[in-house]
Amino acid sequence: MKWYQQTGLEGDTVISSRVRLARNVAEYPFPCRMTQQQRQEVNEKTRQAIFDANAGQFEYIDMQKLTPARAMSLAERHLISPEFAQERKGRALLLGKDERVSIMLGEEDHIRIQALSAGLALDGTLKTAWQLDDVLDEKLRFAFDERLGYLTQCPTNLGTGLRASLMLFLPAVAQTGAMHNLAAAVAKLGITIRGTYGEGSDAKGTFFQISNQVTLGVTEQEAVKNLMDIAGQIIAQERSLRENLKSRGPQLEDRIFRSYGILRNARLLSADEFMSRISDVRLGVGLGMIPEVQLGDVDALLWEMQPATLMANAGRNLDAAARDTLRAETVRETLK
Amino acid sequence: MKWYQQTGLEGDTVISSRVRLARNVAEYPFPCRMTQQQRQEVNEKTRQAIFDANAGQFEYIDMQKLTPARAMSLAERHLISPEFAQERKGRALLLGKDERVSIMLGEEDHIRIQALSAGLALDGTLKTAWQLDDVLDEKLRFAFDERLGYLTQCPTNLGTGLRASLMLFLPAVAQTGAMHNLAAAVAKLGITIRGTYGEGSDAKGTFFQISNQVTLGVTEQEAVKNLMDIAGQIIAQERSLRENLKSRGPQLEDRIFRSYGILRNARLLSADEFMSRISDVRLGVGLGMIPEVQLGDVDALLWEMQPATLMANAGRNLDAAARDTLRAETVRETLK
User: Fold this and answer.
1) Which residue from B250, B251, B261 is facing A261, i.e. has the nearest CB?
2) Which residue of A has its CA nearest to B336?
3) Where do the DSSP E strands lie in A190-235?
4) For the segment B295-314, what is each residue's pLDDT rounded down to a tens digit?
5) Is the entire prediction scored with pTM above 0.80?
6) Are A42 and A25 in contact (CB under 8 A)?
7) Residues in contact with B329: Cβ distance below 8 Å, sequence separation at least 6, in sequence order
8) How far is B50 from B47, CA to CA, in rounded Å?
9) Is the pLDDT assigned to residue A238 strictly greater than 60?
10) ipTM
């Protein structure tokens, strides 16, 4: 079972927890100055370290050998960065089973360890990332400075090399226009919050990623605690706004059930409309209005109905119309 | 069971058949020149004739005693004319059980006999109206001229006094813009065709009433045959356009099933939106796409979800928001 098929803690408002650790190997220059030969060496050393430890059954993927759709699909599911999917030469991925952990080799840093979990689970996710960090630390000598901490190519990662993020589901905050003030307030506390899928459409505007900005002069635990404290306040605000919307009349319930009806019946669903409708349904499930639907099923669709992932799972390229048909079919089948 | 809960012949394209016979009692002036005393006398004589013959268990309704909602509801279901619902003084209605027959007393003519059936059934419907005509003819002396036929207040009804109508369901004709040419063509053949619910919205624009215009110099059978011949051609055109729309891709099926999903899930449904969605669903049922839904159920909703009928059946006045809620509830329950 993939990590996102499970329903995590605070699932009504928190979709996923993610931890990323940036590491570099001491005897090599940063990736931007590496030769292809050096890249291969670092990739191979990392692969060997992971495989020797048999750390959770990893697959080693030479990124250059992937089709563009499979590479894009990995980015859609947040297993790699979009840039990593674009520029694939000399880059490799160690992908753990269930897609809970991934290690990007040759991204901005030599090694980027990443762990993902459903719901609010930053402590456990950090622990998972640290286990991989320990495995690699035994075989590789990381670039580390006693005073600064881990050395990274970009100074914004210097120190812990940690980026902890939560993907939040905030439809009520978004609808009531409370996000603008919220973003300004958390920025002062070393936290950034931004739309996960860009700010283009209303629909996409209900998913937000909140992350720590500070990596220098704090411990990993402090950074995670700060992030969780602020997330807790945002979650409380979202829940209170939801109850408020719900109490105002049948309009919210009407919108939620219309979207549910459309998802269960449409024969064509664009990616944009799907995101908008599933966001309504996810809110309905969170509010207890649709007891027959599990959040895990909703979130699996959230990840798997994206264009490249849809094609990757179908095993062939599809034009937009064929994707819309297949998306509608799969959604109908899932919510039936 | 009310007449519209049954599925009639050619139900995919023909919702109902209606026959109206205009009659006047010889010894009285036309209604526009009658005293209230004379109106009462004609109403009472007609009532007596019908009740004596026990012709199909009639209810006698003094129109002035009805609430506005009940009067409007009768008009919504085409059991009386809208004018008859507006001006109710001195007017009465004999309403047959199952609402298959009704006799308006004191409309434009003294007596207007009307019979309704589901689907294409003009011959049988004419027979039903004639049976009532015979019952009344035994007791009352109708204003009749050997050369002209039945005398009516308005010369456009002179002769047979017959208006035969079909309510047609023509979403494909409407969508492809073929109605304009069609209306011009049938006008030359003594037939009028017009939108049943006005031409305001797209939705309402899929229901059309087609009727004979000529009452003088033709027999009733000739008028009905002419109407049925032309209706047959329109039905064939509608069906061919439907197949054409269906073959063009999944867009039609998508629209139909979205409307089906919305009707089965919405918590608020305005009268306009309901008409639009139910029209899509009716098309889907006609095309065999929604085998679990019966046309009789769809058509019952078509009549019963109109604003005044909704209130009449609820037994109380409802504001627009309460009607939208009750409409959505009833539709969900019916299509469940």
Assistant:
1) B261
2) A261
3) 191-195, 207-212
4) 999 999 999 999 999 999 99
5) yes
6) yes
7) none
8) 5
9) yes
10) 0.88
